[in-house]
Write a structure and sequence with these properties.
Helix content: over 70%
Keywords: Membrane, Transmembrane, Transmembrane helix
Distance between the termini: 30 Å
Subcellular location: Membrane
Order of helices and strands: HHHHHHHHHHHHHHHHHH
Number of domains: 1
Number of strands: 0
Main location: membrane
Strand content: under 5%
Radius of gyration: 21 Å
Shape: globular
Number of helices: 18
Mean pLDDT: 87
Family: Belongs to the multi antimicrobial extrusion (MATE) (TC 2.A.66.1) family.
Pfam families: MatE (PF01554)
Low-confidence stretches: none
């Protein structure tokens, strides 16, 4: 495994994963051109609610990718197909539940966040439209994870790019031409998610020789496989709750400083998402390669992947930091024309520049551990990082206000890297020994 081979897998995944935050970023940028900052605040709050809902079940993509990569490495086509079907059924069920309980979800979220009255009105409008895309969004997580697991990264890239390009076109149509404002950006996102789902399902059916009718009920509902899947999903679910707690506290505390600071933080957090998803592309590449190594019992491939992951965890954040520092004055106005918001965002932009340096190892090593489906260290490191974050929020916000909020967030990001890196030696010692014992028993 060379740097070139690693990058040939990572680069399409970087492009694919970076398109994920563009749904929120494009929505933010389009409404940011409108004169009232309450529009951007409303979309920020609405996006936060959906991030909360969907990120709780982000394990559907991550675990699907990890398990599928292991089955693919073991050349077990039936297990590959089963690792698609099981989480797919779960995704549809969860999406339908979200639709059925949309009113209490919306009411609870807006009550907890308690933004300004105008911001709340726009957030309500955004939520009431986008909620109908819940089954499509969650099923898309599974479809994308499955294609990544079988190394069909170009298909993942196509689906993500298609969805986001369609979203851009529809945003411009609904907002700039039809003047539907927040309702327009929500409708554009809903249509884009549904279209990506339909195309993804078509490609899945064309890509697999197996059909559900070829799978017995005992195979589909295998208790041992479900226990293994749910154990991994439980740890990733806890990890996601920690992440959402961090971002929800961040948004809520930012809202307490006023609408303009809320809007400035929303712009910067969208830039942060783009950086994070850039790093997530490397994480996905590492996850696929580690999954293959585990499935094929190839310890050499695992060690080489770990080495490459560590090297790119150093190179990539330096590149991102340089690009942002050079072009930040051009990047921020892409998201809003409000001069007060632009100036506020610039005054806090140093924290976004630091973010990739703090977070890179945590994000990329996350891919290594998920590919190995060894997720307890991910859960533990995130719980510790959250505790550190809350402690520093209490210390720094009274002292430095919004700067204190950002400082606590950077410390949290650094904690994710340090606390997860502490588990790498243990993974190196035990991973293939454990897999060998499992194979001997089976």
């Amino acid at each position: 495994m060379t740097h070139r081979a690693y990058l040939s897998l990572a680069i399409p995944l970087i492009i694919s994963t970076m398109t994920t935050p563009l749904l929120g970023a494009v929505d933010t940028a389009v409404v940011g051109q409108l004169p009232d900052p309450a529009y951007i605040g409303g979309v920020a709050v609405g996006t936060m609610i959906f991030n909360t809902m969907y990120w709780l079940f982000g394990f559907l993509r991550v675990s699907t990718s990890g398990f599928t990569a292991q089955a693919y490495g073991a050349q077990d086509s039936k297990q590959c197909f089963l690792y698609l079907v099981r989480p797919f059924l779960i995704a549809l069920a969860i999406g339908i539940i979200f639709i059925l309980f949309q009113w209490p979800i919306k009411h609870t979220a807006l009550t907890l966040i308690h933004p300004d009255e105008n911001v709340m009105t726009f957030a309500d409008e955004y939520f009431s439209i986008r909620i109908w895309g819940a089954p499509f969004t969650l099923a898309n997580y599974v479809i994308l994870g499955w294609f990544m697991g079988i190394s069909r990264v170009k298909i993942s890239l196509f689906l993500q790019v298609f969805m986001n390009l369609l979203n851009v076109v529809l945003d411009l149509l609904f907002v700039n031409i039809l003047h539907q404002d927040v309702k327009g950006v929500a409708t554009a996102t809903l249509i884009s998610e549904a279209a990506a789902f339909l195309i993804g399902m078509y490609i899945v059916l064309k890509s697999s020789n197996l059909r559900l009718s070829a799978i017995s009920n005992n195979e589909l509902w295998n208790v041992g496989e479900f226990k293994k899947m749910m154990s991994v999903n439980r740890d990733l679910f806890i990890r996601t709750i920690c992440l959402l707690t961090v971002f929800n506290l961040f948004t809520a505390r930012g809202a307490s400083f006023g609408t303009e600071i809320l809007a400035a933080n929303a712009v910067l957090i969208q830039i942060h998402y783009i950086m994070a998803y850039f790093l997530d592309g490397f994480a996905n590449a590492s996850s696929i390669l580690v999954g293959k190594a585990v499935g094929a019992n190839d310890e050499t491939l695992y060690k080489r992947t770990l080495s490459l992951s560590s090297q790119w965890a150093i190179i990539s954040p330096l590149f991102m930091m340089l690009i942002y520092i050079l072009f930040k004055d051009s990047i921020i106005p892409v998201f809003t024309k409000n001069q007060n918001v632009i100036e506020l965002a610039r005054s806090y932009s140093i924290w976004v520049a630091i973010f990739p340096l703090a977070a890179s190892f945590g994000l990329i090593l996350y891919g290594v551990f998920t590919g190995a489906t060894e997720t307890a260290p991910i859960r533990n490191s995130m719980l510790i990082s959250l505790a550190v974050y809350i402690a520093f929020l209490l210390i720094f916000i009274p002292m430095f206000h919004n700067h204190g909020l950002w400082l606590a967030f950077i410390i949290f990001s650094l904690g994710r890297s340090l606390f997860l890196a502490m588990y790498v030696p243990m993974l190196n010692r035990t991973l293939f020994r454990k897999r060998g014992a499992i194979n001997a028993i089976s």
